[in-house]
Design a protein that fits this description.
Layout (H helix, E strand, L loop, with lengths): L2 H41 L8 H13 L2 H18 L6 H17 L7 H26 L8 H28 L1
Helix pairs in contact: 1-2, 1-3, 2-3, 2-4, 2-6, 3-4, 4-5, 5-6
């Protein structure tokens, strides 16, 4: 065998593993997050505040730093979440699209590896998500729903507290492959 063919043989399993990881990262992790969003509160009602699909969208946007891929990723996660929830189709899709775009845009300006900045951004984007969902529900659907600022601030802090270890785990998972 030549040196070139030996090099090809050594490199091919690595590329397959990277392709599998990309599939897991782009499809399986968001799907697990959406399913946990739908089914986790049924068994553990005290975790109903946890917005894992949003946190996955924010993590992808902050780590990728590209507004266009983050926009499509947020749209994908939001539409999957819409299809599995009782909400009208498109509401989470629109809101998570906005979150993905703005999170990626913000990540180009700030050091998102800093845990304090990550905490603040996770808190801000939770509040941003809830506020824009409320605006869209009132404007597009004509629903009269309340926006409890105090409750959303508390849930935003709890989601930001969950985001720090979750983002660290996702980063370690990404580095493992």
């Amino acid at each position: 065998m030549t040196e070139y063919t030996e090099h090809l043989l050594r490199e091919s399993p690595r590329k397959d593993a990277a392709g599998r990881f990309r599939f897991v990262w782009l499809v399986v992790i968001p799907l697990v997050a959406v399913l946990s969003q739908v089914y986790l509160p049924r068994f553990l009602p005290f975790l109903a505040y946890l917005e894992l699909p949003l946190l996955i969208t924010v993590h992808f946007a902050l780590s990728r730093r590209g507004p266009i891929p983050a926009l499509f990723y947020g749209m994908f996660i939001g539409l999957v979440q819409d299809s599995l929830s009782r909400q009208p189709i498109g509401m989470y899709g629109i809101v998570k699209t906005l979150v993905g775009y703005f999170a990626a845009s913000v990540s180009m300006r700030f050091d998102v590896q800093n845990p304090v900045v990550t905490f603040i951004l996770a808190f801000f984007f939770y509040f941003f998500h809830q506020f824009f969902y409320w605006v869209l529900a009132r404007a597009l659907l004509g629903e009269i729903i309340t926006f409890d600022v105090q409750q959303n601030l508390i849930f935003g802090l709890l989601n930001a507290a969950v985001a720090l270890p979750l983002f660290r785990i996702l980063d370690k998972l990404k580095m493992a492959n």
